[in-house]
Amino acid sequence: MAKKEKHNVIVGQSGGPTAAINSSLAGVYCTAIKRGYKKVYGMVHGIQGLLDKRVVDLSEHIEDELDVELLKRTPSAYLGSCRFKMPEINEGKEVYEKLFQILEELEIDVFIYIGGNDSMDTIKKCSDYAIITGSQIKFVGCPKTIDNDLALTDHTPGFGSAAKYIATSVKEIIRDCWCLEIKGGQVVIIEVMGRNAGWLTGATALAKGEDCEGPDLIYLPELPFDVDGFVAKCEKLLKEKSSVVVAVSEGIKTADGKYVSELGSASEYVDAFGHKQLSGTATYLANLIASKLGCKTRAVEFSTLQRAASHCTSRVDLKESYQCGQAAVKAADEGDSGKMVCIIRTSDDPYASTTAINDVHKIANEEKVVPREWINKDGDYVTDTFLEYVRPLIQGELDPIMVNGLPRHLQKGIQL
Predict the structure, then answer these.
(1) CATH assignment of 159-307, given 3.40.190.10, 3.40.50.460, 3.40.710.10, 2.40.110.10?
(2) Cα angle vertex 338, ends 84, 123, to 5°?
């Protein structure tokens, strides 16, 4: 029986960018070419751009091995991202008809989407529609999110690099606090991304070591936040030391389910997936401590810095991100659809991992949170088990390619 002729692959990036997402893109591109596909198209601004027929031929932008290496080291989404929610199939048939018509026109055999939870929802819906209509296009998800909240994967590409940057920055903040002697003491509140999962905030504990005492308190969104108890703990610590450093997830909530950020002047912005914009948690708590305890306070919000710090990436993270891109193409090429690539940890010491695939229906719209037993009894720090889980993921460096004293990124003609 003659082999089916291969045509084209299309790849898109969706959701919040990371410092490692383009390493997955490089893995997809190189593997698709190696496996004999004619073209690798990129969606400009994800599936939203694809519906507007905004696509590029990646071979016109990735010309040689140097471009591949630059792409691996380039932060944020090279193709542009989006937060576009695909409708339910029975409610938006015309959207799917348009999408699949575009894919047929481009002669697409394989559709790869690099993203987090909401992106896997897109893979789930599109693969279901393909089954309903008899389409032979294969839909495979490639994981990405600094939040580390995707189910069935040990961890997600992007998380290790963000954790490395956060832990590094916390060490530097603690040194900054340590050098100044302030009358009455000071409390510094560091706000870290994490709506419902505190993996990134917990990573601030990595700062603790022989040369750094680490943050004094860590609060994750997995447990209710006691505002009065927090103030009391800060007051007690200020009697013992001149500087107190606290790390909080942006998504911490009070016992009644209200975001702490909403206790101040909360943003009214809500994205396509119904997610409120969370910011101002650290500012609210810093102002509260200042008014209650009368000491100097400072709010530090890493914001987008924590997800695009390509100068402080983890070699392990970028390597695994590339491998996930490879595995996504391999899975689709071998006939899988409606699946997501997962990272499987095969050894802790020495650390080793491999990839596998799982049914995206078991992953989309599920959230992996920090286990309760990985948070201490008082709910204000993480355990050694948490640190043993995270520490291997921040190891090694992939140095930027420097030009005129600054990192060089790949930016060849794609109009975002």
Answers:
(1) 3.40.50.460
(2) 5
